[in-house]
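trehalose-phosphatase
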Amino acid sequence: MDFVSRMLKVYQQLVEKTKSTPGALVENNKFCLSVHFRCVDEKKWSVLACQVKSVLKEYPKLRLTQGRKVLEIRPTIKWDKGKALDFLLESLCEF
């Protein structure tokens, strides 16, 4: 299964798993999945985190990070904005 297909499958599982948590929103950003909990009752945050972690147990090549009221699921590769910029600059210099 290729990466995009795997992310779509995880997205679908997260949508299904979190639908019982009012206010939770799962977003598919193609290369990253975001589970927003800004509109979730604060008492339910830990339940939502457990739901997300239960899905990710099946996918050891994905990692979970947390931002401002968002859980993000990303591949376990060393990639950040700086490396992305370097990649783009190198690609543009090839022309």
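thats it. The chain has one domain: 3-93. The mean pLDDT is 91. bye
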